[in-house]
């Protein structure tokens, strides 16, 4: 399925859906644009959870949808100033807030929308995932982003393949797949914020809704075939060393 067709196909259905929000959250033309965006992301994420589309299609679709909306409009739509003032910056790692978009409590989304705040030099610590995917859109600031495929995993370590090492700024979306680019590590180069789209519970048969594996990247050992064997670590260890 091409990128264009993922969103185009969903559009026909999305037009029939009502997001059921309070009027104040999506007032004005920019508000309606955000309402449409959230509806589309919700449908794309529901389609992923229902196995109607692949993870690759979901990643491409999110990229397409978020590229159509200016970050400044998105920031208005999530009430950025109020949320950012509320969560501040963490001394280590990140501070986060769930975004409610003013939706009524009966309306549940197929994805978890969050705001991440990361101060200069602080990081979203290096980690891999299971049973979830996510996409991260910088709204302001800049990050050094590194990503890796998750090749295999055991109780003590993940084996990974480097896929990206780049600086990202407002509008540069990055996402993870179930294996492809599944490990990520963001270091803020200035006070920075991201809008995050998180979809967990991809495999309903699994006991855990999702899992996170924090990684000691400095202790990575190269393997003979060009991969890295990276020890797992606890959240508190990882925050002390990388947060
Ligand atoms: Fe993550």
Summarize the structure.
29% of the residues lie in helices and 34% in strands. The chain has a single domain (3-242), classed as Jelly Rolls, CATH 2.60.120.10. The chain contains 6 helices and 12 strands.
Structure description:
- The chain has 243 residues and is of the alpha+beta class.
- It has a single domain (3-242), classed as Jelly Rolls (Sandwich), CATH 2.60.120.10.
- Helix content is 29%, strand content 34%.
- It has helices at residues 3-14, 28-49, 55-67, 71-77, 80-87, 235-242, and strands at 95-98, 112-118, 123-130, 132-140, 142-153, 157-169, 174-175, 183-188, 192-200, 211-215, 221-222, 228-233.
- The strands form 2 sheets. A 6-stranded antiparallel barrel has the order 3-8-5-6-12-10. The chain has a 5-stranded antiparallel beta sheet with strand order 1-2-9-4-7, covered by helices on one side.
- α1 (3-14) packs across α3, α2 (28-49) packs antiparallel against α3 (55-67) and α2 crosses α4.
- The longest helix has 22 residues, at 28-49.
- Mean pLDDT is 90; it is low at 15-24.
- The structure holds fe (ii) ion (FE2).
- Fe (ii) ion binds at residues 127, 129, 134, 184.
């Amino acid at each position: 399925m091409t990128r264009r067709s993922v969103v185009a196909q969903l559009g026909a259905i999305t037009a029939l859906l009502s997001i059921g929000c309070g009027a104040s959250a999506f007032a004005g033309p920019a508000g309606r644009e955000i309402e449409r965006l959230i509806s589309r992301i919700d449908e794309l994420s529901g389609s992923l959870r229902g196995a109607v589309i692949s993870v690759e299609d979901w990643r491409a679709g999110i990229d397409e949808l978020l590229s159509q909306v200016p970050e400044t409009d998105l920031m208005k739509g999530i009430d950025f100033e109020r949320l950012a003032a509320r969560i501040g910056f963490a001394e280590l790692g990140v501070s986060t807030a769930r975004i409610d978009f003013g939706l009524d409590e009966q309306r549940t989304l197929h994805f978890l929308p969050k705001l991440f705040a990361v101060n200069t030099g602080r990081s979203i610590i290096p980690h891999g995932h299971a049973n979830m995917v996510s996409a991260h859109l910088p709204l302001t600031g800049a990050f050094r982003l590194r990503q890796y495929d998750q090749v295999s995993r055991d109780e003590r370590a993940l084996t990974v393949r480097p896929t990206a090492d780049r600086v990202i700024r407002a509008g540069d979306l990055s996402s993870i797949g179930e294996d492809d680019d599944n490990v990520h590590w963001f270091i803020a180069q200035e006070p920075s914020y991201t809008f995050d789209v998180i979809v967990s519970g991809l495999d309903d048969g699994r006991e855990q809704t999702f899992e996170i594996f924090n990684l000691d990247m400095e202790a990575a050992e190269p393997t003979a075939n060009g991969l890295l064997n990276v020890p797992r670590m606890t959240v508190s260890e990882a925050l002390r060393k990388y947060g």
